[in-house]
UniProtKB/TrEMBL annotation:
It comes from the Bacteria. This is HEAT repeat domain-containing protein. InterPro entries: ARM-type_fold. It comes from Polyangium mundeleinium.
């Protein structure tokens, strides 16, 4: 079945849905194209007291009031709403009518007689979508003419302007309810904002950046929309209503309206803003809209109860995704929170934030902690994943300085840093590896680095082993490790030689089997199956004679069973 808003409507279904109070009634209305039938709905629809009738009526208006052959129904409903002084309904019409006229920005050539040159300028022109009728009324036309569209916009504005002249309080309440209805997709381009005739009058009636013309609002010469400042129609309607304006900041669906409300609050209610508590500010900070977050974060400086926030509440506030607002929050947390209230892990979490101000704060606080013990070292190793580049670079230097002086530093800690995805962290870790005697000749660390996925790490290791191979005694285990790793990277002939030497050493010195079997496994993984057999045969024969050797092979070389299957 086709979507209800694209298929032809049914009069039978329309009457059935109306009687039963089914919300599908509005879809059926939108699908109809019979003007007279539609017009007959107006009075009973507006006067029906059921919540269903009101709900569907508002949904119908929100569709935009521009369906083919719906002109009679729209005009009848609007006139009835005016007559009934139904401010809410007329507010919905205001939002719909502000979308009836569309212009577009085009580039045109104009000659500058004073400068004697041709200029390219951007101007607003009609899209040509709306019919222009010069021969008078045409009741059979499917859509409103351009003139009627402009008339409807002026008429709905006149309705609210007259209310504001007589009763600014009523006007203010009605307008604020209507402003909530504007959405960002209604005003997503400069030309669409300029076409919102009523909205611009409500918010920027006296703005110097705008010129009002009968054919539409334009940006004044040598001005821009960025210069717009609140200059509302009937300014008194925005006085003495702090709570209503504050609510508009969070409920408005359009950035234009939210920014206007924020500016009204800053200009007209500084005292009230200064007394806002953290309980009132927290939902503003958590608001998904950037301008609201920045506004709320700036108010933190004077918020009541800010010093009593728990660490968990501060950390929750720092989760918002807005660099500008986070800058304000970091200033506030520095002022009101002592680093001693946070654990080392919490500081590291902050330092790993992608937002630079938060990450800098976290690192500064982490560096005030005593990083002693294995757990502390494991905590600060996470700084190698910090996403803010400047923070990560400073953190890597600090972590390396801790490892270089700590007795609890282990090979695995250096290995984890060398495995970092960021080259600045790997560079610091490799420098530690090269200068610290605890790590520079650790065969297990050599083995781990030789299998690194990073070219810079492998190149660094090979250069290091070339130097160490010359310095180490020929009979030492470290020399055998260095020679084997270099052989794996140099070529097949040297690989086979290294395998033979390791196997012979294991057979001759079963007491050294534990480290050598691991090295054997590393070398075996780099050669083809036929090249493995000679070394495995020698080691296997020795294993049958030495139970301790069999145990070492089982722990260090569990894949040996796979090689046995290949041999069979």
């Amino acid at each position: 079945m086709a979507n209800a808003r694209t298929r032809a409507g049914s009069n039978l279904l329309l009457d059935e849905y109306w009687e039963s109070g089914d919300d599908r009634f509005v879809d059926e209305v939108l699908s109809l194209t019979a003007g007279k039938k539609l017009k007959s709905l107006a009075e009973r629809w507006l006067k029906d007291s059921r919540p269903f009738a009101r709900r569907t009526l508002l949904a119908y208006i929100a569709d935009g009031c521009d369906r083919p052959h719906h002109r009679p129904l729209v005009k009848s409903l609007f006139k009835l709403a005016e007559k009934a002084h139904d401010d809410e309904l007329v507010g919905h019409f205001m939002v719909a009518f502000d979308r009836l006229v569309e212009r577009k920005l085009v580039e045109k050539s104009r000659y500058d007689w004073a400068g004697r040159r041709s200029l390219k300028v951007r101007v607003l022109v009609g899209t040509g979508k709306h019919p222009v009728r010069f021969w008078g009324r045409n009741d059979s036309a499917p859509h409103f003419s351009k003139a009627t569209r402009n008339y409807l916009r002026r008429r709905v504005l006149r309705y609210f302007r007259d209310i504001g002249r007589k009763d600014p309080v009523r006007y203010g309440k009605a307008i604020r309810k209507a402003l909530v209805l504007y959405r960002d997709d209604h005003l997503d381009k400069p030309e669409r904002l300029l076409d919102a005739w009523s909205l611009l009058h409500m918010l920027y009636h006296g703005a110097a950046a705008l010129d009002r013309h009968p054919d539409g609002i334009r940006v004044a010469k040598d001005r821009s929309l960025a210069e717009l400042e609140p200059a509302p129609l009937w300014p008194e309607a925005w006085q003495g209503c702090f709570e209503d304006v504050l609510a508009l900041v969070t409920t408005a669906k359009s950035r234009t309206v939210r920014v206007f409300a924020v500016e009204i609050l800053k200009a007209g209610y500084p005292r009230e803003l200064g007394t806002l508590t953290m309980a009132r500010l927290r939902p503003l900070i958590a608001n998904p809209n950037e301008e609201v977050q920045i506004f709320a974060a700036d108010l933190l400086r004077t918020a009541e109860g800010i010093s009593s926030l728990t660490v968990a509440e501060w950390l929750e506030l720092l989760q918002i995704d807005n660099p500008t607002a986070l800058g304000f929050l970091c200033e506030a947390i520095k002022k009101h929170v002592s680093p001693g209230r946070l654990t080392l892990d919490q500081c590291v979490d902050l330092a790993c934030s992608p937002v630079a101000p938060v990450a800098e704060l976290g690192l500064d606080w982490a560096m005030t902690k005593k990083a002693a013990g294995v757990k502390a070292i494991e905590a600060i190793l996470r700084l190698g994943t910090a996403r803010a580049p400047r923070v990560r670079e400073a953190a890597a230097k600090w972590v390396v300085s801790i490892l270089s002086t700590s007795k609890e530093a282990r090979m695995t800690h250096v290995r984890d840093l060398v495995d970092a995805r960021y080259d600045d962290v790997r560079r610091e870790a490799l420098q530690l590896f090269e200068r610290d005697v605890r790590f520079k000749d650790d065969p297990a660390l050599w083995s781990a680095l030789s299998e690194s996925p990073y070219d810079d790490v492998r190149a660094f290791l090979l250069a290091h082993l070339v130097q160490r191979e010359k310095a180490l005694g020929p009979a030492t285990l470290e020399r055998i490790w260095a020679t084997t790793i270099l052989a794996v990277h140099r070529g097949s002939k040297q690989k086979r030689t290294a395998l033979s030497q390791i196997a012979a050493r294991i057979v001759a010195h079963p007491g050294e089997a534990e480290p050598l079997v691991g090295l054997l496994g590393y070398a075996l993984r780099s050669v083809r199956p036929p090249e493995r057999r000679a070394a495995l045969a020698a080691v296997s024969r020795a294993a049958f004679q030495a139970p301790a050797l069999r145990s070492a092979i089982g722990r260090k070389l569990p894949e040996l069973s796979l090689f046995q299957e290949e041999r069979a």
